[in-house]
Structure formats: structure tokens, C-alpha cells
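[Backbone geometry]
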Amino acid sequence: MSQYTANRYPGKCCCCGQPVAPFEGVLLRERGKMQPAHKLCAKGEAETPDPIDMAYEDNCRDACGLFGEY
């Protein structure tokens, strides 16, 4: 299953704020709602790592004695 859903309605991109035409772009879950986004904007959002998740992973590696070993 894809992490994106096809967009059927016009709206404003939740990432860049520009209009998204009907049947173009994708829907993303943003603040508990499905919001339209351009495909390129959504791809950029998905590739940006979450700093909180990264800190959690670093803490887990440190606790296991794996920090610094890649």
C-alpha cells in the first residue's frame, strides 16, 4: 500500500500553500486531517527526517553501547 492517497478535489497545498488542481497531487495526513499536496512537496516532506525520532534512535544506540558503530 502506498503512503499517499490520490487527490480528487481542489485545494491548497499543505506544504507550500499553492493551489492543487483536482485529480493532481496527493493527500497527506496533516494535523489529523487529510490535506492535498503537490507530489514533489509530499516527497520532500517524506524525506525530511524527524529530529525527535533521530534523537530517540541515538539514545537507544547509546544505551545498547552501539553509538558510533555504523
